[in-house]
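S1.2 Input.
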Amino acid sequence: MREDLQKAVYYLRLGMEGEGNHYLARFLQELGSCWNDPGLPQKPPLPLILPHLQSMVEAQQRGDYLRVADLLEYEIQIHIDP
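S1.3 Output.
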């Protein structure tokens, strides 16, 4: 999950939205899967991540991919990495 997040940030910062969005979708899919896995003891805290996901969607709708990358790297990743 961490690798897909980092790749999404990397490609979005380079202006390669297609690649960045590919890895962003993979990251979000993995994030959703971990919350649905009852056997996973350590889960990212949804209440801390959810507001940033909403901001990320809004930035993406505006075409502000640098803001999306910032949110992933500075607001969401801290809750993913132990």
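S1.4 Remarks. The two ends are 13 Å apart (CA to CA).
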